[in-house]
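EI: anyone free to look at a 170-residue chain?
SC: sure, send it
EI:
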Amino acid sequence: MDLKQHIRHVPDFPKAGILFYDITTLLRDPAGFKTTVDLLSMPYAGQGIDAVVGIESRGFILGAAVAERIGAGFIPVRKPGKLPAKAIKETYDLEYGKDALEIHADAVGKGQRILIVDDVLATGGTAAAAVQLVRRLGGDLQGLAFLIELAFLNGKQKVAKENVYSVLQY
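SC: here you go
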């Protein structure tokens, strides 16, 4: 199945000059969604991953499905102010501004084997912030998995020391 055929391109979203890769059109297709989860999960099956960290918001969808598929727990990383208990925060730059991510302060145990999952690796700021959050809590980061890597934005450089896997490259 050619997953790229199911991804909608939305120009000038969320602001002028940005081309947004909309995966909702892929996820609504049962075969596309299954294939996506299969391909994201495959490298991590049987690898002893304790928990998958999913980055808000499409990383929740993909990360939770990957976690279930590989028999791991799921940990959400959210925008500031969305988590109900004590959280730690990491600020980062993205292609169209600044933002921050938070994780519950007790979400990751020391030495816990963690996989980070998100939909897109663009400039790498979000991914690098998630890596910092996992590391600050003592997690043993096993890798980062993305459905899409926008290689022309060189985001992989911000997580160059990490094991990065992407299903699709543009």
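EI: Strands lie at 8-11, 19-22, 51-55, 73-77, 87-94, 97-104, 113-121, 140-149, 164-169.
SC: 👍
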